Every structure is written in structure tokens, then in C-alpha cells.
Amino acid sequence: MNSNQPLTVLYLWGVLIGFGLIAVASVSVHLADAWINPMFLRHVGYVVVSGIALVLAYLIPTERYSQFHRAAWLLALLLAGLVLVPGIGIESGGGRRWISLHFFTIQVSEVVKPLLLIFIAGYLANNFERTQYSIAPLLILLIAVGVVLGLVFVEPDFGTVAIMGTVTVGVLFLAKARMSHLLLLGGFAISGIGALLYVEPYRVTRLVTLLSPWEEGVKLNEGYQLTNSLISFGRGELTGTGLGTGLQKTFTPASHNDFIFATIAEETGVVGASIVLGLLMVLVHRIGNIARTALQKERHFDSMFCYGVALLIGFQALIHVGVNAGIFPTKGLTLPFISYGGNSLLILSALIGMVLRIDRTNGLDPSK
Amino acid sequence: MNDRRHTTAVVCFTFVTALLVGQMAYIAIVERYFLQDQSKMQSERLQKIPVHRGMIYDRLGEPMAISTPVIGVTVNPSRIEWTEDEFGAVADILKQDANDLRAKIEGNRSRAFLYLARRQSPQKALALQQLALDGLDIQTEYRRYYPLGEVAAHLTGFTDIDERGLEGLERAFDAHLEGEVGTRRVVRDRKGRLIRDIRYETLPKFGEDLVTSIDSRLQFLAYSELQNVIEEYRAESASMILIDVPTGGVLALANVPSFNPNNTSNLDWENVRNRAVTDLIEPGSTFKPFVAIAALESGRYTPETKVDTNPGWTVVQSKTIEDPRNYGVLSLRNVLVKSSQVGASRIALDLDEQSLLTMHERIGFNNYVLLGLPGETIGQLSGDDISKPLTRATMSYGYGFSVTPLQLARSYLTIATGGLQRQISILLNDEYRERDFRVFDKGHALQVLDMLSGVVGPTGTASKSPIPGFQVAGKTGTVRKIARDGYSDQHHLTLFVGIVPMKNPQFLGIVMVDGPKPKVEGGKVSGGSVSAPVFKRVATRALQLRGVRERGTVAGATGRDDAA
Hints:
heterodimer, A: 3 strands, B: alpha+beta, Penicillin-binding protein 2a (Domain 2), Beta-lactamase, 5-stranded antiparallel beta sheet, about 20% strand
């Protein structure tokens, strides 16, 4: 393995975090009429804590997690359940998604992500051979993950459910589950989505909005976020209006998290936006390569875990950009490493720390 | 096998990434015009650039009407989603009730524009801006302020809340005073804060100033003297016009009771009426000088021609016309000095049938003065047959037709100018003023002027109102007002028209007092006792201010401007 790869992952992490600092400074400037504003300062604080989390995660050997993958699942289940209990879960913005620890509020959906990744990797490592010919481990895995995600769905946080569901299937694909089995499960998933649309018709509205956001009556209501996001791209053209000069961020709700990519597109143009997306994809690719190396060395937990991390970052980035650019239905998802938000940044950085640890192990391990 | 799955994943990710970059490029390049139009619809606004009205000045440069900046607070009710605290904060600043405020906004949810408050002090703008509330906007407006207040209220008039002239000069010269609001295209963010200017759509045009011929010092004096006379004689109303004879400019025009143009919320419209230009009065004895001119013009009279008024009364068409006492044989001069009804009647009956009617027309009683102030009217003739002796006799002492005080002032201006009709103007240096034209022979006018100096002389009807050091020409009038059943013995209108200095006329004033009551039971009121003293005091001050000294000769009273 080439020796500069760990540094590449670390560099990419640093560059993306830097982009995030600039973007958050820009979208928050209109909130307080100053570059140094409370939102930006908090984001700087999260970045510092995230750096520490990355280092700490790097220091812990991954065998520890693999032993506790069932405990990780239990903890995820516990948290996802607790947050639904009034008095423990904090209600805000039409959902119960937070648990307060007084000095810090936990966004349960974010914490559930690494716990499920550990569980999936651990379970698949224990059943690695069986997964390739039997459907049973697939079903067990999907049921175990499904129970946790079912609770997350009740919060409600459909975005996390969609992401983690896709990540689970993706990891199974890379774990060499049979295509026929995967297609069967895929059929179930599509029926599930169909049932969901039937039970909750407002999701159909979301889809219709995507097709005709400019219609009168839609534009200023369901289509408001989307049309404002699209206007950002139109204003940005190729090279953007310049950092900090974006106008649409004042019109777009959630411009600091779910729609931060639109502001990047407005201020740095398609060129800047493509660079950010490209950097994210290079990071995903690097992590994928680390996973492949671990797989070749038959360290299945490390391999499956890295694939999970790569797919998590990859899917979340693609869906965020796709939502901003109007080809996926409007769904609240942050852009990894860029969006404002302490939980997401902290957990993603810790995951990067673990990936770096695995890469180090790859290098040390005597080749088979 | 290993690498196939991995490679498939890499290909899928690369494909989706490329798809996204393509989609971004498509919307950013191909759809940019549409999207940028949408952006303009959302963020570009036409912003008004408020302009203030021109100021109104007197001839000395003292302000009579000023525009001061204030703010109007507006909201877009359809976009307001304020918290309880925010409603409270706004209500606090505007000194309104928070619940009322909320109700007002809720009640207008479907609208995009609503005034919360107007004419607020500019200091409040800062406090409101600091709240940075969605849907709240602050607009600069101007509020009119009249430093002379009720003293010049009938001159300045006032504007409505949008600074449109409603009364007085504000209305008469609205087009001149008002500016044109400019507009500029600006980019605003969601909270309505200005991001940048794009361009001016229309340039603002500020209102032009108006310089009047008014002398605010004399205006003050006239107003306070009218107040005094009303108090002294328990009169109903009083008006005065003071004119600068050389230019025809109005130096003062006052009516009492007046109103406060700075607070027009509770107006008594009776007081808003500009009596000096709108009220119709019968001129009474003040018409007699024009009978004298007609007599002189007949060639059969000189100032010394004798007129027999014995025995102090005469019967015309079975109506008795009488003097207060028997004046005996009077010269034409003394008919004016004593203001003899019998004398004036006998002269009128001696003249051509048409001569007084022609005189009425020549001195402009059929025409508007066109001062420009709103509500100006003109008098009317009763329509009685002029071939009847009684019609001519009553006309000779000023009954049977009506004029406005302003028209009466103009008729006397033809005497003061030595026979010239001169345009009366409210503006200093009025470029649209008509040229003088001759109405009377200069000699006749000067003879009548000379005769009128006797009125303020020791034997005249205004003998108590001489101005020390000056010869004053004047004429009194005490008019009985028409009541429900004929002329009233109780309700009088006292008039005095004065011109000073007699030999070089500078000032002409008319004083009208409506409904003065005698100071003692059974006493009498008259133009000489009630109105003449007002003229005396105001004219004395005017002479002092201008530094006029009596001169031995009558200077040619043409349009020489030696004002102020």
C-alpha cells in the first residue's frame, strides 16, 4: 500500500473542515451582521472537539469495537428508544430527536450511525462466509438494523433511515452477498416505500414538488426551499458571486445545514461546488481503498467497517447535493464535514480517526 | 470477485457524481436566466426616494412652512410571524397596545402593506431596525410644520398626511411646492435589509421654495390687533389685509378666529374659511369715494362744489334716506369727510344713470382679484333696475351689491396709485403679475385721495385715528347686516380702508370687524371707532419698519419696489 494514503485521508479531512468553516462563516454572517458571530464561534469549537475525537479514535485498536458489536446495537436501540420518551427526548421543530446531557445535546440519529456501523461490521465479520451463500444472515442483519431504524423513523428522521438502510444494503453488496438475495431484499424495500407513500400521502407531495417546484402555490410553500436552492445555482453560474456575497442564504431556511451546498454553489459557482463534491468523493474512494486492503488481508471487521464509513459519507454527500440541485426529493440531510452541527462533525471525525487506525493496521500487518 | 464488487461501487459513485455535476452545470448555465429572473422577483424592489416639499418664506426669508423628516412604520402583514416578545417590543417603541397591534396585523393578513404608525420621530427608526424583524419596514416621510401657527394659518393653509396641499398657499401652489418622488431599484434580503443599489429608475425632484410678499412682523401685529379688537368689542370675527402700494404685494392677511395648521385633527371648518377673500359684504360708505370720482369725471363737480343736504333727510321713491344729523350745505369733500348719505344720494341722482354701474365695473367689482388663495369669490349686484332713482341712491352709499374685502382693497389701490389698476400679488417678485393699467384720470384720483385725508382729520369720521407725523387718507364704513327680516339695527360690520402716507402712498390696509358690540349700553359702533384704530396701529409699525418719512410731494406711485 502506498505510504502517503493515511495522510491523504487526513489532508482531505482538514481541507473539507476548512471549507466548512468558510461556508458556515458565510451563511451565518447575515444572522448577526458580523463575521465573528455566535454560530461561527460554536462551529470553531466543534472543529476543535472533532480534532480531539479523531485523535482519540485513532488511539483505540479496532478489535475492541468488534468484540462489542452486540453491545453497540443494544446501545443504539436504547438511545433510539429513550429519545422517544417525553421528558428525556427534547422536542423541537416538529420532532423528538435530541437528548440533553446538560453540557451537550446528543442528536440520536447521528450517534446511532457509528453504533450501527460497528454492529454491521461485527456481525458480518462473524458470519462472513455464510453471508455469501445464505440469506439468513442478511435477514437477521436487516431485522436488527430495521428495529433501530424503525425507532428512528418514529422521531421522525426519515433521512437517517434512508441513509442507513442504503448503507446496510451497500455493505452487504460489498460483503459479497448473492445478487439474487439482494434483489429479493430490494423488492421488499421498494414495496415498503410504496406502502409508506400510501400511508403518508404528504411524501407524494414531496415528489410532485420535485417535478414542478415553480408552479404558483407550490413555489412559496412546499417548493420554497427547493426554488431558493435552485436560484442559488443560477446566480452562481460558473464561478460564483464571491465568498460571503450570497443573497439566497437569507431566503433559504436551513441554509447552514441542509442547504449549505446551495450557498457554496452561489458563492463559488459550479466550479467551486464541483471541487467540494469532488474532494468528498476522493475521500470516499480513499476510504474504500483502505477497506479493500483490509478485505484482502481478511480483516473482515475492519474492511466492512471502512466500507460502511465510505458508503455513509458517500451516500450522504450525494443525496445532500442531489437534494440541493433538485434531483432528489427535499430531505433534511447535512453535507459531511461542511454543514454546521456539532454531532455530525464530531462523529464523522471520530470515524475518520478509526479509518486511519485501520489503515495503520493494514500497513503493519504482515502480508498474507 | 473481490474487486468486481468494489469496482462496481466505484463506477456507480463516479456515475452519480458525474450526473450531479452535469445537473449543477445545467441549472447554473442553461437555466440561469430563468433563475436569475426569479431571484430578481424575490429580492429586487423599487424603493421610493422621499422628497420634501418646498419651504414657504416671507419676504424677509423667515420660514412660514417647513418640512421636517419623520418616519412611517409599515409592515407586510402576510409575512409576519413575530413572537409575543417581538410584538411587545414593537408596541413599546410605537407606544401602542401589543394586543391591538396584533389584532391589526391579523385583521389584514391578506394584504402586503399596512401602516402601523406615521409621523413618528426619527429616533424610533434605530430602535426598530435593531429588532431586525421580518416584514417590518421604515420609510422616511416629511411632516409639515408652520412656525407662525395660527397667525398665518389662512395664508399657509396646510397639507394632508401625504403632504398634499389642502388649504391656503399649500393648496394654491401645490404643484410648485411638491416634489416628485424618485425611485431606485435595490436588492433586499429576506428581512428587507438593503444589500445594494442597482440604479435609479426615476430621479427625485425636490419641491421648490415659495417666497411670499408677506412681512411676518406685520402679519403678527395685524393678527394680534384683530384679536384685541374682537375682545374689546366682543365681535364675532375680524379680518385685515395690508398691501404694499408700490408693488401690489400683500404684506399681511389675517383673520380671527383662526386655527392651528400644525394640528388639523380637530378643525372647526368655520375658522378655516379665509374671510378676507371669501366673505361677501356690502361696502357701505366705503363706496362713496367712487361716487366722488364719478362726480369729478362728470366735469360738473370739484372738491369744493356745494351739495345741499338739508334738512338731513331726503325721500326717494317714498323711502327716507337720512343722515345722523343735519349737516347742512356740504362741499363734495365734506360729503366724504362726514360720510353723508343724503349728500351721496343727491350726487348720484344728479349723475348719469349708468355712471355708478360703470364705476362698479371699472374698479373691478365684477372680476376676481386672482390672488391665488383658495376660495376666492366675487361679489354680485342685486339686479335692481338702475334706472330707478332708489337703486342709484342706495348704491351711492354702498348697498345693493356685494364685494369681498379683497376686492374692496383692490378698488382703493386704484386711488392710492393715482388711478392705476394694479395686480395684487401674494408672491414677492411675482413674474406673472399683470401690468398696471389706467382706470381713472390721475388728477381725479389724487383729488379724491386728498379729500379722504379729511376723514382722518379733526372733523372726519375717523378723527380718533390719526398717525402722528403723517397724512392718512381713509374711509370708514358702518354697514348694517342683512338679518332675516331686512337690515339689522343690532348687527353691524365696521370697515375702514386706509392709505398712508397720503402724498406718497406706501401702505393700503382694509380692516373689517364683524358684529362688534358697543362698549356701553346704547352706545354705537362705527368704522371710525372700531376698525380705524386697528389700521392706525398696524400702519404706524409698517411706516417705522420701512423708515418712511412724510414728504412734501406726491411721488409718482408706480410699481417702484422699495420694500423692506
